[in-house]
Amino acid sequence: MSILNDLYQRMIDAMGVDGLSIPTNAVKIYKNGENIPEEVMANHPSITLTSCQAAKQASLGDAAFLTEENIGCIAAAITFGLVDEDQDEPLKGARVYTEIMHEQSGLGDNFAPPSPKDFTEGTVYACKHANRPDFALFGDEDSGRFKDTETAKRAIEDMMAIQPPTTKGVFFFSCEYDDIDLVPDVVVLSVRPVELTRIVQAYQFNTGKRVNASMGGLRVVNSDLIVRPYLTQELNISTYCLGARLIAEYEANRMGMGMPFHVFEEIVKGMEDSKTGFPFPNYPGAAD
Question: pTM of the prediction?
Answer without folding.
Answer: 0.97
